[in-house]
Design a protein that fits this description.
Length: 163
């Protein structure tokens, strides 16, 4: 990446600051407890499509996954499976001649619990330079950062090389 490209990307980040925060705010406002991620995934899918990505969405078959020798089970997966928990993949073809990039994360969050909240767990409230709510530090914020960073690169007119 040259200095001009870097400056264009940073310009898009600054110009899109409110949109970036709003995207995270809107994502946090969607409750995505384990087993209830469908609405959140649909929200992300819509954004990826607007960005021009090819999107694939499916609910894995847990029985088929168990047949894979690398399959690792965990208690929550046994409890909730994948019904209503779609897996979402967005693909943006690169120009070729370079390495591909894969960004991965999750949007399920831990239960709210009974502790008092300064702001509601699904508020996405912004107070000063802090944004509050379930997923604001793990992992909705990471997903929003990856998606919006890629969007800023795209808006800057830069096409990555990968496959």
């Amino acid at each position: 990446m040259n200095e001009g490209q870097r400056e264009r990307i940073l310009g898009e980040v600054e110009a899109g600051r409110e949109e970036i925060v709003r995207f995270l705010h809107d994502l946090i406002r969607i409750p995505t407890l384990a087993g209830e991620e469908g609405r959140g995934q649909a929200f992300i899918e819509q954004k990826l499509r607007v960005m021009g990505m090819d999107v694939d969405v499916w609910e894995p078959d847990l029985g088929e996954l168990r047949k894979d020798p690398w399959f690792m089970n965990y208690p929550l997966l046994e409890k909730v499976g994948y019904r209503g928990r779609p897996v979402l993949v967005g693909v943006c073809k690169g120009a070729g001649g370079g390495r591909s990039l894969m960004l991965q994360g999750h949007i399920d969050v831990v239960p709210v619990g009974d502790r008092p909240w300064k702001y509601g767990p699904w508020s996405g409230a912004v107070d000063g330079n802090r944004l509050y709510g379930r997923g604001s530090s793990d992992m909705k914020s990471g997903m929003a950062a990856m998606i919006m960073a890629f969007d800023c690169i795209r808006r800057a007119g830069i096409r990555l090389k990968g496959m």
